[in-house]
Amino acid sequence: RLLGAPGMPDKNTRHTLMFSATFPDDIQKLAHEFLRDDFLFLTVGRVGGACSDVTQAMIQIDHSEKRDKLMEPLSDVPTAKARTLVFVDTKRNADFLATLLSQENLPTTSIHGDRQQREREMALVDFKNGTCPILIATSVAARGLDIPKVEHVINYDLPSEIDEYVHRIGRTGRCGNLGTATS
Fold first, then answer.
1. I need a surface site. Which of 31, 33, 149, 171 has the fewest CB within 10 A?
2. Which helix (H) or strand (E) holds 182?
3. pLDDT tens readout for residues 57-85
4. Which GO terms describe its molecular function (predicted)?
5. What is the pTM of this model?
6. 149: region left, alpha or beta (phi > 0 left; psi from -120 to 50 alpha)
7. Cα–Cα dist 182/141, whole Å
8. At what angle do helices 66-74 and 91-103 cross, to 10 degrees?
9. 39 contacts 31 by C-beta, under 8 angstroms
């Protein structure tokens, strides 16, 4: 909508830059429609692929074991430097797990679309400064956030799309740092 809005410079006179870890078909079509015919497509690494600085692990467990299994890596997390980002599928589960972990003396906060902007900003501040080194999030935090020192991403709930998985685990292993993603 923005690129086609009245008052926007013509596509032949403006400079448009697009950045993403993925480049889905619908976005490619949009790019062809709103960019000059001779646009430059530059990739770093493999589009849609995970960063090689992220070690990925998959653990197969029964649903009833998920909470206990989540506690294992988190018990060692609350240090001043380490950050762990846990992704869940629902807002309700984000708040539930944040409360559960806090009751286990694991400083935790949550972020999702039902929280007010101010609450989301405070949760990110607490996560970034280490007050709450564990952040439980829905996919709202999978894109557009650059949070330093995220050492571990845990997919408590697996996303249904591979692009979403790539964006989620891309919160760690950034800017030459190593990271771990566990699903």
1. 33
2. strand 179-182
3. 899 999 999 999 999 888 765 555 689 99
4. ATP binding; hydrolase activity; RNA helicase activity
5. 0.73
6. left
7. 17
8. 60
9. yes
**Kind and range of the H or E element at 91?**
helix 91-103
Other CB atoms within 10 A of residue 158 CB = 12
DSSP 63: G
Q: Report which DSSP code applies to 49.
A: P
Specify the CATH class of 54-182 in words.
alpha beta
CATH 3.40.50.300 location in the chain: 54-182
**Which residues on adjacent β-strands are paired with residue 84?**
134, 152
Burial of 9 (0-12, 13-18, 19+ CB in 10 A): exposed
Question: Which DSSP category does 135 fall into?
Answer: E
Joined tokens for residue 157: 């709930």
Tokens, residue 77? 């997390």
- The DSSP bridge pattern shows strands 108-111 and 179-182 to be unpaired
**Model pLDDT for residues 84-138, shown as the tens digit of each residue:** 999 999 999 999 999 999 999 999 999 998 999 999 999 999 999 989 999 999 9
